[in-house]
């Protein structure tokens, strides 16, 4: 059998390999010789095949597709990929669980990450959200502590419900998200059967420089479907990759999942007078006040060819923006603008943006050079600093972010609005009786292992303040009484 050049096994530096079945030894019984550089290279590369997993959102699945504009929104934003009805933009989407490790089960009670990368003609735009419209906390300074409570105890290496409920009971702003998480929506049936949200408030700016505040809503066309706690646990034991498998198989057989994108638009001046802080990510805007406006349709129609290259190495950040879309003063968002890019530089490398899955479709021109894993021509011999006299790339003033007014004393301050109960109570009352029964059952089951009664009573107090029935039902389920001071 004669091998062609294309079929020859080579080392990573391209030299042909003579024997890939037997290591080089001193005689048939060894020992192994260190001069077997092919063996050393194989073992060394194998040791490094896993990049550090994401601190959060470690377990996930992804797919390629397109986004098509279905409604004219140019009066709100100059973003080019939204510039005309019918315009299509290629996308890559990654869905994920939040707290679990890379090998954890898909069907656990946990929020789901919902990250979309738009490959626009003027650079990539990342919309990095969840399948819930709110979050547990509203200030990024609390994020490391919150995530620590979701991870394993440093001594037992077991999940720690004491830490989870201790943190939540001491952080009443979490109540809205906790109610969603413990409801039927806490375990989506599949990635295809859940909505997605940008969660944060962002800013859109039009060609005239006029801005509006915006929230994103992806509505699944497959319909909402959820799993009960019992079924989710059963699937976790039988097929822990259930959601990953479902997404891949549905696309493979041509059953392409789709979502409609809507936005809520708030005039800039309303932010000063709205009854909830519009930049508080633990709150929603009423759709009666700011109705949903259709923007477009997202379709996933192609599976990755290689999971590691396209899903594991995909990097998203809410700071990956394009002209026409900007950020808001949301304190959680402000922290994420740093943390996400920094996590990718640590996990994947300083040049993660140059990897094929992350690379912009338009030409990238800047003065960044060198760094680990620089695999293109590194700018060649072109000018590598700015300003310069050699016709290097320069800024374009019309793409400068719109200015905005800031004022106030520099200090570590809390939010002005601290009503953590109204929206959580509204959500509880919106549920039907069967849904409320399951919500309470899920909460009681999750809180039962908590050893400290004070933590339980503190959390029950939050439920009671949201709705007395809510608190009483949880207390009864745990065999406790509502504290008199709460009543």
UniProtKB/TrEMBL annotation:
Keyword Metal-binding found: yes
Domain Catalase core: 10-394
Keyword Membrane: no
Enzyme Commission number(s) of this protein: 1.11.1.6
InterPro entries per UniProt: Catalase (IPR018028), Catalase_3 (IPR040333), Catalase_AS (IPR024708), Catalase_clade1/3 (IPR024711), Catalase_core (IPR011614), Catalase_haem_BS (IPR002226), Catalase_immune_responsive (IPR010582), Catalase_sf (IPR020835)
Domain of life of the organism encoding this protein: Bacteria
Any Pfam family: Catalase
Record's catalysed reaction(s): 2 H2O2 = O2 + 2 H2O
Record-linked CDD domains: catalase_clade_3 (cd08156)
PROSITE patterns, per the entry: CATALASE_1, CATALASE_2, CATALASE_3
Region of interest called Disordered, as start-end residue ranges on this chain: 1-27
Annotated SMART domains: Catalase
Family: Belongs to the catalase family.
PANTHER family: CATALASE (PTHR11465)
Name used for this protein in its record: Catalase
